[in-house]
Every structure is written in structure tokens, then in C-alpha cells.
């Protein structure tokens, strides 16, 4: 029995039911469309083609029997089968199906887009461009530019640039100004006067903003986004209530350099600028978009305090992550000692961010399916789709994709320009990096031709010996100090000593005081100035010597917030100066503390180290890695929201053990904030969302081997993970 007879039998059978032949065939086509879609999601492309083809056969039969099937179903069958053909590499068949879909609906955006994909793979770039242009004319949506602006990116003979989108255009008005047409006539932040009729040549270096709706109709100045702080949380208003009411800058001790926003408009603009979705230069002059690749690479390096480099993708994607570059001895392989891979075949672009810790972000290849937006799952608890996801997994990846789209720069050119930038920085300014020091560990900090030297010598010594008036450095193995007492050489038992030319005496420098927003400058402790001993019971945040003040300022200005970074630099310099004598310091103890890489090089010595993306730490052995991921600090980091999307700022208390509404809610709850129950339906709903969020984070951490498989103790988070 052929298919037509089979359909006739089934239709005759359904005549005795409540379904009409049209409803029956329509439902049958719909089911096959759903089955094909499911097969496609499971990467079973051949089966998907069969399902879509069977659905089309039913449509053909229905047409022969003059039974109408919705055209939307027919269009979807053609487009979906074209998508499956494209995934199988049969792009010519995909083009044919797209043409059939366009015959059904000549304004089918999906068909035009899929046809463009297939034509691009066939090398027919002009035809692909025409398809995407037609798609733009139909959709009239700004977001459609994502598809066509990426389309010809891989064609080196073509270049497509797209305008930068303003996500605030629907709610905010913007206007460029200068100090002449928007002068200040007082000391307050609201004493500026707009003079739109002034005849002058405007420098267009001040951004004005106002809401399109609401009571605020006057133009308000929006300061440049703070770039001198590594703060990654949501922007908030300046806490000085008097400042907000009066607008008097004198009430804010930081003045114009305050990293808090002076108004809600600054919060709106700064938030979008940090995401990379708004470009201030385009708001100043939309016709003068800068597409210079060197300019854009340099701007990214300055904004995110890091460097582009190539890593081995096989090692980076392993679980746990291994950071390996091109091997110094054999440039054809990566530096993974246990499982070296062919480097050129597996290299991927990455960005190394150097803040309080050193962290890496892989930047996947930009292709036609990429969506220039952040993946919501990636910024929350980690995207389970990983490389198959078409959304950006980090802000730096999103900005790099935008740069590639707007300039056509290749990944090789990005790394090349990054290296040039840091070579120039080493020549013109002091930098705490192995190549930036001119001398050994006991020589002045700074170096480089033309660099402004800090003019301090430094060394690390044993803290136990220092308390007894002795200065002893570590032995070659970095296990013990060189004194007779043989104190253990650990992070807690060493101190940083510096010496200035004016004083022939070593002075201890304490770690940089932790602060959410670092001060503009450090001051000397008044008790020290009076030549007395500081009697402050806690950690005094004032410098106890001129040398400490200078070094703290230097560390703050160079984003060196952790003493571990200074130690790594000192150790690197010590090795450089002792290698000629064959007495280099070596880390032979497998349980020794972890060290982070401070600056990349083009090549690396053969090594194997595990990298924790949460803490930015390296472990040189499996045992050291297990110790790290079992530590309380690491487990707290797994559940923290540090550096996550700003929408994760919770509004209510930390969840209690009872996920129920408080029974005493009708009256005043005597336990207050310590109550184990939720105090409102909204708080209970947030508790449930927070529990689900933490469970997802834990599942992702286990998958990435950032948590031991048998680990069940998570401290205060234990009850959240129980059923």
C-alpha cells in the first residue's frame, strides 16, 4: 500500500471521529515538524531531514486532495529542512528549500537568513549579501544587523561595518556640549547652565542627557565612566544625602573623581557603557565612528587591564581547566607536560585579566550565528551549552566580537597589536611585570628607558626572623628560610621589605588595605608622624612609613592589590639574576602555595598546572588542586555572586532554613531579621529563586571539576542544597 492509499485509509477512519480531514492532516504535519525539530536539537540531522520530508509529503498529498494546510507550516518545513541540510554540509539543497519557502512567503525572514547562510558557505558572497539586505528591508529591526554584519566577516576581500546601537534611545535624549555652551556658574554639581544659542565651535567633549518622559526635562551632565577602579558591581548614587539634595560638590571629598554616580542618568549610561552596548563617541558624533583596529584593541586593553594571547584550546576546555601556551622548546606543541597538543591546530584567542588575581577568558571565534549579546546563563551560573552557545559568555568576549565586526580585524592581528601595546608600555612607563624591571630583586622598582622609577629596593624575608631583628631569605627549594631556625617559608610567614636611597634601612610594608573604593591618595598615620607607636587595635589603613605610602600608591595605580603578585614578581626577578650562577629558586614542594602568572610571554616552559576560573589561582599538581577546591574560601566563591550580572543583587535577607511564610506575620514577629521564616510572599519567592540559583551553580561547578565529587559540606549553604 503506497502512502497516498495509507492517508486515504486514515482519513476515512477519522471521518467517524470529531476530527475533519483538514484538522487530522494539519495535526499530523505539526507532529512531524515537532519530531524533526527535536531530532535536529539532538544533532540527528539525517533523521530531521526525514521527518521534515515526510511532513512535506503529507502537504503534497493534501494539495492533491484540495485540502488546505496552513502556509506557515509549509514554510517552516522548508526552512527547517534547509537548516538541517546546512548543518550536514549540503548547502545547495538548502538553497533550493529556501527558494521554495520564499515561493510560499516571499517576505520570509527565516528563509532569507538561511539562504544567506548556505550561499555564504558556497562562496557566493554577493548573493548572500543581497539576501541579508532584503532581510533588513523586511524586518526594519536594528537587531537584524547582527546576522548580516557578521555574514561577510570571514571574506577577507569584503568589509561590512554597522552602526553602534544606542539601547537608551527609546527613553533618553543625548546632546554633546563643551565648557562654553554648558559652563558651570557655581560650585555645585547642578550649577551648570545650558546655552544652546551660543555661537561658537563646540568641542563636543561633554555628554548631556535627559529623560524623554517624567518631570526631569533639563539637560544634565554625565561624567565619563570611572576607569581607575576595578569595581564590577552595580553603580549606585553617592551616599552623601546632602550632596544629592544640594548638589554641592564641596560635600563630597572626592569631588569630580568620585566613583559613585551623582544622578540616575549617570547610572543608566555607565551601566550600558560597561556592558559595551553604548559607545559615548558615537553619541558625540554618530558619523565619526572610529573603526581603527589599533585604537579599538588599545581601548580594550586599557579598560580591562589585561592582554590578548593565544592558549591551547584542548587544555583550556579540559576539566579542570589547564592553561598552556606554545612550548618554548618545541614550538609545534603546547606547554602541557603530560598531554601536549599541536598548538597551531588547537590555539584559541584568550584574554588575560590582571586585577587582584590573574584570570583568563576564552574568546571563541566570531561566526555568522553569533548573537552580539551576553548569555544570561553564562553570567549567572555558567552556560551548559558551552561552545555551542551563540551568545557571548563574558563582557570581554562580547566587546571583542563587536570590535571584529566593526573593523574586520583578525585574531592574529589582535594578539600582535596587544604585544605592541605592552612593549610600548614597558618602554614608556613603569609596570610590575618581568620585562619591566631593569634590575634584580634588590634594585629599584621601575626600570625601562624613560620610565619614572619608584626608586625603592625590595626583598621578601622570613617574618619570624624579622621579629627578632634578622633578615633571612628563602632557600633554593622555597621550603624554609636560610636561618638556623629553619622557619617554614609560607605566605603567612614572610614579609615584604623595602629600602629607599635616603635611608640605609630596610622597612616592612604591610599588604594594601582592603577597600571597596580605594582612596585617591594614602596618608601617613598621625601617631607615626608624632614619632609614637600606632596603638590602633585593628589594621591601621594609614601608612606607617614614607616607603609604605609610596609603595601602596604604586600598587593601587598599577592594579596590584594583592601581595602575592608582588611576591611572584620578586621571585621571577630572583630567578633571572640567579640563573647565570645555576642557583635559581625552584618550587619543588608539591604542597607549596599556588602562584598566579603575572604577565604572559610568547612561549612557556613545559609544565602542567590547573587553573581555577573562580579564584584566578594556579595549582601545580593534582594534590595541590584538590587542596584548593576543598578550601572554605574557594567553596564560598562557588556560591558567591561576585562579578556576576548586576540583576542578581538580592533584595531580601539571606534565606533561612524554613521556606514558608512566618506564622506570626499577622502580628509583629519578635525574632525580626533572625527569623527562620520568610516575612512576605515576595521574600519567599526570592528565597526559592536563590536556592535554585545556588543549586545550578553547584551543578556547573561539579561539571567543571571545581568541587570534589564527594564534597557535601558547604557551610552556611548546606540547608539550601537539601531537598
TrEMBL record:
SUPFAM superfamilies found in the cross-reference section: beta-beta-alpha zinc fingers, CCCH zinc finger, TPR-like
Gene Ontology process terms (BP): miRNA processing
Top-rank lineage group of the source organism: Eukaryota
Annotated zinc fingers (C3H1-type), start-end: 374-396, 524-547, 656-682
Keyword Zinc-finger appears in the UniProt entry: yes
PANTHER family (alphabetical): MICRO-RNA BINDING ZINC FINGER CCCH DOMAIN-CONTAINING PROTEIN 7, ZINC FINGER CCCH DOMAIN-CONTAINING PROTEIN 7B
The protein's name: Zinc finger CCCH-type containing 7B
Organism: Myripristis murdjan (pinecone soldierfish)
InterPro entries per record: TPR-like_helical_dom_sf, TPR_rpt, ZC3H7A/B, Znf_C2H2_jaz, Znf_C2H2_sf, Znf_CCCH, Znf_CCCH_sf
Amino acid at each position: 500500500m503506497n502512502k497516498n492509499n495509507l492517508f486515504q485509509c486514515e482519513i476515512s477512519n477519522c471521518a467517524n471521529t470529531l476530527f475533519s480531514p483538514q484538522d487530522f492532516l494539519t495535526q499530523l504535519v505539526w507532529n512531524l515538524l515537532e519530531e524533526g525539530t527535536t531530532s535536529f536539537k539532538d544533532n540527528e540531522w539525517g533523521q530531521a531531514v526525514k521527518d521534515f520530508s515526510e511532513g512535506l509529503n503529507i502537504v503534497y498529498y493534501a494539495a492533491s486532495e484540495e485540502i488546505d494546510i496552513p502556509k506557515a507550516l509549509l514554510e517552516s518545513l522548508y526552512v527547517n529542512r534547509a537548516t538541517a541540510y546546512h548543518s550536514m554540509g549540503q548547502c545547495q539543497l538548502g538553497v533550493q528549500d529556501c527558494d521554495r519557502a520564499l515561493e510560499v512567503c516571499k517576505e520570509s525572514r527565516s528563509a532569507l537568513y538561511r539562504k544567506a547562510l548556505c550561499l555564504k558557505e558556497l562562496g557566493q558572497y554577493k548573493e548572500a549579501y543581497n539576501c541579508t539586505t532584503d532581510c533588513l528591508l523586511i524586518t526594519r529591526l536594528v537587531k537584524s544587523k547582527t546576522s548580516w554584519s557578521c555574514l561577510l566577516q570571514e571574506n577577507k576581500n569584503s568589509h561590512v561595518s554597522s552602526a553602534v546601537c544606542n539601547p537608551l534611545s527609546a527613553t533618553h535624549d543625548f546632546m554633546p556640549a563643551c565648557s562654553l555652551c554648558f559652563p558651570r556658574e557655581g560650585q555645585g554639581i547642578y550649577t551648570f547652565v545650558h546655552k544652546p544659542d551660543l555661537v561658537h565651535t563646540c568641542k563636543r567633549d561633554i555628554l548631556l542627557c535627559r529623560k524623554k518622559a517624567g518631570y526631569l526635562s533639563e539637560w544634565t551632565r554625565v561624567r565619563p565612566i570611572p576607569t581607575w577602579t576595578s569595581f564590577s558591581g552595580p553603580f549606585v548614587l553617592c551616599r552623601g544625602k546632602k550632596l544629592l539634595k544640594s548638589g554641592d560638590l564641596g560635600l563630597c571629598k572626592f569631588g569630580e573623581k568620585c566613583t559613585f554616580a551623582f544622578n540616575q542618568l549617570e547610572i543608566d549610561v555607565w551601566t550600558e557603557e560597561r556592558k559595551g552596548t553604548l559607545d559615548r563617541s558615537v553619541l558625540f558624533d554618530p558619523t565619526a565612528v572610529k573603526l581603527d583596529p589599533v585604537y579599538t584593541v588599545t581601548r580594550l586593553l586599557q579598560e580591562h587591564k589585561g592582554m590578548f594571547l593565544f592558549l591551547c584550546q584542548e587544555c583550556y576546555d579540559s576539566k579542570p581547566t589547564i592553561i598552556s601556551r606554545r612550548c618554548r622548546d618545541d614550538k609545534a606543541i603546547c606547554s602541557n607536560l603530560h598531554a601536549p597538543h599541536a598548538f597551531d591546530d588547537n590555539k584559541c584567542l584568550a584574554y588575560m585579566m590582571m586585577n587582584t588575581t590573574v584570570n583568563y577568558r576564552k574568546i571563541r571565534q566570531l561566526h555568522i550565528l553569533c548573537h552580539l549579546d551576553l548569555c544570561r546563563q553564562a553570567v549567572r551560573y555558567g552556560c551548559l551549552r558551552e561552545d555551542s552557545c551563540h551568545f557571548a559568555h563574558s563582557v570581554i568576549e562580547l566587546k571583542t566580537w563587536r570590535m571584529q565586526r566593526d573593523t574586520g580585524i583578525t585574531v592574529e592581528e589582535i594578539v600582535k597589536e596587544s604585544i605592541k601595546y605592552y612593549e610600548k608600555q614597558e618602554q614608556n612607563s613603569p609596570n610590575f611585570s618581568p620585562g619591566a624591571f631593569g634590575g634584580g630583586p634588590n634594585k629599584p622598582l621601575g626600570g625601562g628607558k624613560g620610565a619614572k622609577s619608584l626608586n625603592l629596593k625590595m626583598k621578601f624575608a622570613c617574618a619570624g626572623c624579622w621579629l627578632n631583628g634578622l633578615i633571612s631569605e628563602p632557600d633554593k627549594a622555597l621550603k624554609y628560610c636560610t636561618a638556623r631556625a629553619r622557619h617554614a617559608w609560607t605566605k603567612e610567614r614572610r614579609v615584604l621589605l623595602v629600602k629607599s636611597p635616603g635611608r640605609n634601612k630596610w622597612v616592612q610594608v604591610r599588604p594594601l588595605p582592603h577597600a571597596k573604593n580605594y582612596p585617591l591618595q594614602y596618608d601617613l598615620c598621625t601617631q607615626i608622624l608624632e614619632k609614637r607607636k600606632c596603638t590602633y587595635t585593628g589594621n591601621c589603613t594609614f601608612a606607617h612609613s614614607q616607603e609604605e605610602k609610596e609603595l601602596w600608591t604604586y600598587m593601587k595605580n598599577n592594579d596590584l592589590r594583592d601581595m602575592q603578585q608582588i611576591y611572584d614578581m620578586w621571585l621571577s626577578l630572583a630567578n633571572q639574576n640567579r640563573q647565570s650562577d645555576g642557583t635559581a629558586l625552584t618550587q619543588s614542594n608539591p604542597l607549596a602555595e599556588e602562584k598566579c602568572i603575572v604577565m604572559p610571554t610568547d612561549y612557556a616552559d613545559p609544565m602542567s598546572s590547573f587553573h581555577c576560573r573562580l579564584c584566578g589561582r594556579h595549582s601545580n599538581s593534582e594534590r595541590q588542586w584538590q587542596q584548593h577546591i576543598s578550601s572554605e574560601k574557594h567553596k564560598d566563591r562557588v556560591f558567591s555572586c561576585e562579578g556576576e550580572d548586576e540583576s542578581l543583587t538580592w533584595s531580601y535577607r539571606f534565606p533561612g532554613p524554613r521556606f514558608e511564610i512566618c506564622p506570626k506575620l499577622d502580628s509583629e514577629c519578635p525574632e525580626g531579621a533572625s527569623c527562620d521564616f520568610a516575612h512576605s510572599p515576595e521574600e519567599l519567592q526570592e528565597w526559592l529563586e536563590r536556592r535554585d540559583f545556588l543549586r545550578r551553580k553547584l551543578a556547573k561547578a561539579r561539571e567543571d571539576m571545581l568541587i570534589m565529587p564527594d564534597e557535601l559540606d558547604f557551610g552556611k549553604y548546606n540547608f539550601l542544597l537539601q531537598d
